[in-house]
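Section 3.1: Structural characterization of target chains.
Under the original work plan, the team committed to producing a structural model for every single-chain target entering the pipeline before any wet-lab resources were allocated. The record below documents one such target. The sequence was received from the expression subgroup and is listed exactly as submitted; it comprises 487 residues.
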Amino acid sequence: MMNPTATSRSDDFDRLGSETWDVLVIGGGIVGSGVARDAAMRGLRVALVDRHDFAFGTSSRSSRLLHGGLRYLAQGHVGLVHEASVEKCVLHRIAPHLAHPLPFLFPTYRRTPWARWKLSIGVRIYDWLCGRRNLGPSSTLSVAEIVEKLPGLRRENLTGGVRYFDGLTNDARLVIDTLRSAVAHGALVRSYTTFVAADPASPGWTCRVRDETGDREARVAAATVVNAAGCWAADVPHSRVRLRLTKGIHLVLDQARFAVPEAVVMAEGKRILFALPWAERVIVGSTDTDYDGSLEDVPTDESDVAYVLDVVNRAFPPARLEPTDVLAHWAGVRPLIAPKKVRRGSPSDTSRNHQIRMPHSGWIDVAGGKLTTYRRMAQQTVDLVGRHLKRALPACRTAREPLVDPAEAAFSGVVPPPVAREAVEHYCRREWALRLDDVMLRRAGWHYYRKDADDVARQTAAWMAEILGWDEAKREAELKHLRHVTR
């Protein structure tokens, strides 16, 4: 008997080619997912395809922060900070299970760009830009107060610090829950389905897509096409996107080895890195360097690891962290809008603004932006779709309607072993997980969190074999693939 997931995938692929869509979305990251949800909620017929798993790229490899960006305020990007600050509060309202208030401690030192008096003013402006309803109140800390919170902090030239609030999320889970909401409102979404080509039609576009799991192709009729392919957006046929790709890495440490009671900002000149508490773990990152390598396999280089650990060890001299202390790591690529000037400056200075354009009739490129502003980007994109279709669409509701029913958020965190089998079945049957890394990296995050991740992977592969009908060769191939992508 064919498993339910395979049956559904076959039926969905048939639907792709047999129906006419108002919107075909390319890319199942956070932006594409947001577009699909918004469009479906406004009554449009929406299909979404992604050549990989959902959230495969940048949307599962971020810092997991919902933030306005305090350093962007220092760069003068007030509009961007205001937009992102409002959006992080919106996400806290519609998805409280994925937007946890997180206090940040920012130590300040003499003879650095981050003076205590400047930051004291800055964090109060930061609160004000949230509409005076930030996720918590900011404050200024004395030397004694910040040392009490962070006893291992470097004391030389320490002047105190500030405390402010942003939000911690599960980036991949935010994508999955957004897609689940899109489907609940009528969207069709399909992973491991490649957008191959498109030709202008009257009206709209005739597109060709390929099922990567079934070796089939289909022609898809769509009135509009939204290119939301993230770091792949510039390579999509008909795209006019110009990107500057930068790489960021994150390391996972054990709180027993390096403990932080709250998030900590570690400044290196104008660059800042974060240490983020994650239950028994700590996430440290991120780097920000230009990248021109493979988008399918973004490496965490030894030099990247050394740089991050060096920053932490200078900020916290007693830590003495070494590469052997790293439990897990991930690397992602930021799809930033390429600046027009030939001299581009440092990656950290490149704007995080987004761009939405229609270079061809009915073809919309959406690129840039931040995880935090995805909902706003989607709203603006669907507004443009409505104008192009000459339809008076209903008002956007994504800022008001909860992302998922609270009862449906059961598997949004790290699931304990007693219910892990149940969780894996849920991921496979209800959340489109088809490969082992879909579960270990993006649905459950066990690879990043569990010390016994190898054993968990073997057990998960065995459960998936039962659920999806894998034979022994397929199970071993999935374990080998997981080792390859997490090496």
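Residues 78-94 form the longest helix (17 residues).
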